[in-house]
Amino acid sequence: MSFWGSSIQGVTLLVRKPKEISVDIILALEYKSSWPTSTQGGLPISNWLGAKVKNRLRRQPFYLVPKHAKEGSGFQEETWSLSFSHIEKEILKNHGQSKTCCEIDGVKCCRKECLKLMKYLLEQLKEKFGNRKELDKLCSYHVKTAFFHVCTQDPDDSQWHSKDLELCFDNCVTYFLQCLKTEQLEHYFIPEVDLFSRDHIDKLSKEFLSKQIEYERNNGFPVFGEF
Q1: Residue 33: how many CB atoms within 10 A of its CB?
Q2: Are 22 and 13 in contact (CB under 8 A)?
Q3: 116, 119, 108, 105: which is closest to 160 by C-alpha?
Q4: Bridge-partner residues for 75, per DSSP?
Q5: Which of 5, 66, 88, 142 has an alpha carbon within 20 to 30 A of 119's alpha carbon?
Q6: Which residues have a Cβ under 8 Å from the Cβ of 160 and sit 6 or more positions away?
């Protein structure tokens, strides 16, 4: 079994009206049992969202989704990946240490805005360097995983105040750059899996992305206004 979560096989539907959007339809098998032992130590949200929330989430099912895994020069079809996308969505929906974070009467944080900016940064760089193969294997899943780790590292809502968006975004960029440079990005649910190991992504690709992000940060992120 493969534990990779960013290259899921499925069918993409293109909806043209009233607005053109693409929708991925993915086969998923629900597994209503204890999470695999490989997830022990994963989902480190106890100091952020609380131990009770973590225990509740771990009682939810997990999913198996198909994935093409490389074997030599070809691909094997019988490979499945663990998927926790439904847990990720719930974390993002209820992302505050306080239950009232970002609610109508609660204090607004900038966690979601930081994630959107991180995803947009990678998206814009991939658009800018579309003819470069170095960015082919790098995707929003890597950005989201790094973002979750920053949330674990900085669990307090006061560390994500909406007025501090620029600082918080810079903290996320700094963490992601460190992951690229050390070639280490621990899977948020399966700690034994390093998403930035050279088995997954070669060193030159990580160095290329790191260089481009450093340039953008040093120059005020001009890529945000290029496309």
Answers
A1: 7
A2: yes
A3: 108
A4: 70
A5: 66
A6: 109, 110, 111, 114, 154, 168
